[in-house]
Amino acid sequence: MTPKEIIRLEHLGLRYSDDRFIFFDITCSINAGEFYFLTGKSGAGKTSLLKILYKDIQPTLGFVHVFGYSIGELSRSDLPVFRQHIGLIFQDCRLIPTLSIVDNVALSIHIGGSQYRRSCSYAKELLDWVGLGDCLNSLPDALSDGQKQRVAIARAVVKRPALLLADEPTGNLDNENAFRLMALFQELHKMGTTVVLATHNNELVKGFQYPQLILKDGSLFVNDNGFIKKKA
Amino acid sequence: MYSFFRRTIPVGSVQNSRSLSLIFSVLIFLLSFVATCVFLFSQGFHKWERGNSYKVTVEIPVDLQSINNQEQITNKVMQELNSMPEVLKIQRVDPEKLKAMLTLWAGDKGISNTDLHVPVLLDVEFNSSNQIDIENIKQKLRQISMDINIENHNTWAQKLVVFGKSLKLVTMVIGSFILLCTIIIVILVTKSALQAYYSTLDILRLLGAKNAYIARIFQNQILKSSFYGGICGVCLSIPTVYAFVIVLKYLGLEGLTWSTMLWHITIVVIGVPIIVAFIGVLVSRITVHVHLRLLDKKTSI
């Protein structure tokens, strides 16, 4: 793994209880500061691949290195610290329903050891930036899908992660709102964060000049400016 | 800050744990009461045991030949007893008191008869630090008169002390049972909250929360519930416990001074909620850690 590499997958394979492999023998690397779309049909394994990267599930075969650490060898006690360096955005937002949106965002850095007041101060600043400054104390249930997704993004980026993994963050949004959210990811990318964004929204992928990782027939391909090759 | 923790996983709002503070107050009240009982029984019976263990009554029987002879024997016995280093105090039982005790059998007329002679009784108290050999004392005294008898209070007092200790043991078992109930309730409430807020727990872990951070959420809320419960429990237990003490005092539980009792009872009443809170916090912490470890094993991380 070179110093620039932030993710390295070696001969990665995943199989659930049935015998069929979701993907097999994937070897690729992603450098720090890169932005990738991760695409593929439903069931191609986009979410599973992301889950492997933040160690929510274990791969059946192969090795995964993130930030230079082999995540298969990460102990239970090291896992929380590892996850604190990754920003996660889920398709269903996964906000804590009992907390106000400012607390939902503040929680992300409070977990890392930041004081509550300071966490809230950062959270307010970021929620202002994503256009939710006027509903800081609202509960997630009172927000629209687009607003919830912006809170989820704020929560993921407030701790300034080195790596952002977004699983269909625009899945429930219309194109207009999806493009608005993409502007946030672009800003974050400009600040040096590595972004892997899983999506099945082709218009979104076409609208931005970022390379595309494609999961197809259990293999991973890269589409860089229309040139598709197996990613390595 | 605290409300931030409370709202993340509101342990107390789980269906079966809404009255957590109320449950704590009842348990703390019961435990305070039981602890007071244990303390009072222990103090009372200990003093009783100690008080009687070192006391004997020397009986100098009636000498029908000469009343003067009985007096002489009494004086000799007292001299002999005074010469013993282990003897602390000798007190002759008032003959009028003895006569009053005999009224039941002899009747008023019999007692008023001046010819009625009663035995001389000497209450002898020994120094508790010395080993007392009653048989040896008896032999020495019987050299003065063969009819002298020694009533060892320890024989019957021991049975009473055994009864007292059994009572104390039963109270301690009840106390332990109440404590066990507290532990079970904390475990069930914590487990219910862990199940009910499973998705929140999952989010926290994905955000990088350590097990200790999650355990702290539960600990803080159990501490808060036990704090409020403790205040209610103490408010309930103080009047009850003091009423109980007054009743025991009225019933003649001797050897306990008010200041000692009040001081100890205050410690018990204040100490019990602190102990319950500590146990509650510890139990919830362990429950969360065990649950999360099992979860890790299940997901094979």
Descriptive keywords:
heterodimer, A: alpha/beta, 7 helices, B: alpha+beta
What are the low-pLDDT stretches of chain A, counting only 5+ consecutive residues below 50? none
The most extensive contact between chains is: A-B, 31 and 24 residues
Specify the helix fraction band of chain B. Answer: over 70%
- Looking at the structure, what is the overall shape of chain B? elongated
List the helices and strands and how they pair.
The complex is a heterodimer of chains A (232) and B (301).
Chain A: E1 5-15, E2 21-31, E3 35-40, H1 46-53, E4 61-66, E5 69-70, H2 79-84, E6 86-89, H3 101-110, H4 116-129, H5 145-157, E7 163-167, H6 175-190, E8 194-198, H7 202-207, E9 212-216, E10 219-224, E11 227-230
Parallel strand pairs in A: 3-8, 3-9, 6-7, 7-8
Antiparallel strand pairs in A: 1-2, 1-4, 4-5, 9-10, 10-11
Chain B: H1 2-8, H2 20-53, E1 55-60, H3 67-83, E2 87-92, H4 95-112, E3 120-126, H5 134-142, E4 149-152, H6 153-196, H7 198-206, H8 211-250, H9 258-298
Antiparallel strand pairs in B: 1-3, 1-4, 2-3
